[in-house]
Amino acid sequence: MLDLQTQRATPEERDLIATLEQLSLRSGSHSPSLATMLEALPDIDVKIDACYLSNPLATDLFWSYFNSDASADPRFFMRLLEAYPSQNRIIAERLAPTIGVDPGGLFIANGATEAIQAILHNYSSHVHVNVPTFSPYYEFATPKHEVTMFQLDQDEDFILDPERYVRSVNKSGADTAILITPNNPDGYQIPDDHLEWILSQLSGLRTVIVDESFIHFARAADSHRLPTLVGLTEKHPNVTVVKSMSKDFGIAGIRAGYAIMSPSRVNELLDHGYLWNINGLAEYFFSLFSRQPFLDEYRTVLRTYNGYISDFISRTASAGFTRGFPTSSNFQLMQITNGMTSELVTTLLLLRHGVYVRNCADKIGLDGEFIRVAIRTESENGHIFQALEDVLA
Ligand SMILES: *Cc1c(COP(=O)(O)O)cnc(C)c1O
User: Fold this and answer.
1) The CATH number of the domain covering residues in 5-59+295-392
2) Which of 110, 239, 321, 323 is the most buried (most CB within 10 A)?
3) Mutation pick for ligand 1 pocket among 134, 181, 190, 333 (CB with most ligand atoms within 8 Å)
4) Separation of 390 CA from ligand 1 center, angstroms?
């Protein structure tokens, strides 16, 4: 599928573009993982993964705790390997006070994706999703499900108009609505009063998912509690709050997340499965939650990282070589406005600069050429910015 666009690339780069296209086709609606890509293209030097969304400072923090705990206990690794992890309900009991919920309503998941699947497969038959979105919300629909979509308006920076939205849900006849705030891939955060009003209007639905996986980047953590919307589940019994730990804690490889829902749903799910769905490493990660020093250090690291995010966003805003959308998260959606395709931009960033960004060509609900750039450490952000400038300006 080489088009006129690729004339901007050298013949060598064109070969690599073709290989990358093949890889993307095989990965479906998610980007090939870094490991998959390095395997297929050993000559490419990927210096920065700005495709997957992750707080690199939090990864370092986890790593330092992990190393010091492992060196303090000679049996640490052996236990991880040979022992069963704790059961779901046990981990929920330990975790509930930190999250600020009743343990009975807490479902611990092997990545938030597992919770999303559990909810959609058990408490939903017709899902209304806002597009663009995080694709599992419609991909996990079975042939028995119906899926309808609400198009977010890119001319309005993807803001969610509460009245238009509620009308659309009602008209669709869906029994399930999905609200991601801040949303992936655009980074728009629904203001509290809008969210409250929307939920009050949707009280007749069977299930409303509020996905707050990126909330730590949207608002400041106070000294007692990390930012969260879990309080919504008390007032709105049909609401499930879903939270991934992959992005803010920088631990996507461990697979850790949770969902807050009615205790009767948690019981129903746990009575029929999910006994040891949390592996030992994820259990170790969750144990760090009950340790005040870890939480305090995480808050500090988060504040620093959120500073890097604002710096990056103001830099791209003033540079003007793309249309960068306002974001309340740790990534920025960019529309390419110079006539290049997102595929070419993604490939050139990789080949020339070793910067791997998300090509959004397969995202439903985006009209035009878009990439999503994950925001990283200060020095990596500088490198990403220069790469963007070189390829786009
Ligand atoms: C990444 C993501 C998740 C799921 O992440 P896990 O790695 O499965 O915990 C859920 N929701 C949104 C909006 C995401 O971007």
Assistant:
1) 3.90.1150.10
2) 239
3) 134
4) 31
Binding-site residues, ligand 1, Cβ < 6 A: 111-113, 134, 180, 184, 211, 213, 244, 246, 252, 257
pTM metric for this prediction: 0.93
In the block, tokens 């705990």 appear at 69
Half-sphere CA count of 347, side-chain side, radius 13 A: 26
CA distances from 96 to 58, 104, 108 (A): 22, 9, 10
**What's the CA-to-centroid distance between 113 and ligand 1, angstroms?**
6
Residue extents of the structural domains in the chain:
5-59+295-392, 84-291
Architecture per CATH, domain 84-291, reads as 3-Layer(aba) Sandwich (3.40)
Strand partners, 148: 128
CB 225 within 8 A of CB 209: no
Task: Give the tens place of pLDDT for each residue, 288-309.
Answer: 988 999 999 999 999 999 999 9
Is 84-291 the same fold as 5-59+295-392?
A: no
Q: Among the atoms of ligand 1, which is closest to the Cα of residue 53? A: 1
